[in-house]
Structures are given as C-alpha cells and as structure tokens.
Write a structure and sequence with these properties.
Structural class of chain A: mainly beta
Structural class of chain B: mainly beta
Shape of chain B: globular
Distance between the termini of chain B: 39 Å
Number of strands of chain A: 10
Largest interface: A-B, 29 and 23 residues
Radius of gyration of chain B: 13 Å
Helix content of chain B: under 10%
Shape of chain A: globular
Largest sheet of chain B: 7 strands, mixed
Oligomer: heterodimer
Number of helices of chain B: 0
Number of strands of chain B: 11
Order of helices and strands of chain B: EEEEEEEEEEE
C-alpha cells in the first residue's frame, strides 16, 4: 500500500473547478509533484515544488499544500483534462519518489 | 529536447531476470542534480517507483523490491539499466524510465514505456 493516499475517483462539470488531494505524513516536510496520465501514454509532470508548472502546462493547473495534504487544483476544467492524476513525494524511509494510488478525473 | 527510450525483451519467463536499458539523448546522463530511474505500471493499476541512480553510481531502491533489483549506469553510452531477478506474473507491467530530481521532488522527462510480460 502507498504511503500517499488519494481518492480513487473525482468528477467535475465542464468549466468548473476541481481539487484533487494527496495525504501523507511526508507532505508535512516535502512538497508533492503531480502527474497527468492519459490512456496509453506516459505520465506528464504538471506541478512541482511549491506551485511550479513546467513549460507548456496551462495555468489552470495549480498546486498547494497544508499540513499533511497536498492539492492539485484545476480551475475551469476542460474535456482534455480527463485523465488519471498521481502525486509523488517522499516516503517515511526517506525514499524520494513514492507515488500515490492515483485519482481518476472525469469531466462531465 | 531530452529524450529517453526504453529497450529490452517484451517477454520474460517466470523465475528469470528482466533486463531493460534506457538510452538518454539530447542531454548528458552526467548532469548534476538529476537522478535516473525506473517506474512500472501493471495493467490497469497505478505507478510504482522501482529505483533510481545518480551518474556517480549512488542508488535508491524501493524497499519492497530491493532484494531483486539492480540499477546500473554507463555514462560512456549515456545509458542506465534495470535488472529485476526472479520475476513472476506480478512483475508484468509497463516499465518507464525517467529523469528525476530529489529536491524539489519530481520526474520531468519520461520514456514512452515498454510492456514486459512474464509468462512461460
């Protein structure tokens, strides 16, 4: 089982705002990174650090953190945002690249 | 533009050793601050980090796989490799290689992935 916990599924109406969360003790000390994965494709980094977007990632994607919870927010969700989303951070042993179980986002 | 490409057999027999290589192009594997790692994804399931290596040879391994995993680097060929021993059907997955950073934590470049099936 993962030391980072995500809700298995979340849905959002087209154009609305959705928050996807990731919980874990390591998140009290380290920022999470977030990945979008569409069927048959490799994951794509969408948020890292405090709230940084790689080049080419739309600004409707943002990240935040509070206590043991990291959040990925999509403001004005688009049909193309329908995908699986994974968080990534450290585990309790100090290994730096543990993934959450993933959240399937459906855009209605 | 950095590119990573996995290569290796797509079919491995149970109890044998899975071997994959990731070739890095468009940049040097000896870049400071970056690790190079392996992640897998069983069909229909989530991502699992396997392990990572620095160009100097320093490694991190997932504790749940550590006894079966070896990751090595060949800076002269700009490649790094994965060996996973004593495989079972549970090791069937798409295997990705990726460039990684420890602080902040992220994986920014990924290979396209390669499906490895464990079957007799």
């Amino acid at each position: 089982s993962s030391e980072l916990t995500q809700d298995p599924a979340v849905s959002v109406a087209l154009g609305q705002t959705v928050r996807i969360t990731c919980q874990g003790d390591s998140l009290r000390s380290y920022y999470a990174s977030w990945y979008q994965q569409k069927p048959g494709q490799a994951p794509v980094l969408v948020i890292y650090g405090k709230n940084n977007r790689p080049s080419g990632i739309p600004d409707r994607f943002s990240g935040s953190s509070s206590g043991n919870t990291a959040s990925l927010t999509i403001t004005g969700a688009q049909a193309e945002d329908e995908a699986d989303y994974y968080c990534n951070s450290r585990d309790s042993s100090g290994n730096p690249w543990v993934f959450g179980g993933g959240t399937k986002l459906t855009v209605l | 533009q950095l590119q990573l490409q996995e290569s290796g057999p797509g079919l491995v027999k149970p109890s044998e050793t899975l071997s994959l290589t990731c070739t890095v192009s468009g940049g040097s594997i000896s870049s400071s601050s970056y690790y190079w790692g392996w992640i897998r994804q069983p069909p229909g399931k989530g991502l699992e980090w396997i392990g990572s290596i620095y160009y100097s040879g320093s490694t991190y391994y997932n504790p749940s796989l550590k006894s079966r995993v070896t990751i090595s680097v060949d800076t002269s060929k700009n490649q790094f490799s994965l060996k996973l021993s004593s495989v079972t059907a549970a090791d069937t997955a798409v295997y990705y290689c990726a460039r990684q950073k420890k602080l902040p934590i992220f994986l920014d470049y990924w290979g396209q992935g390669t499906l490895v099936t464990v079957s007799s």
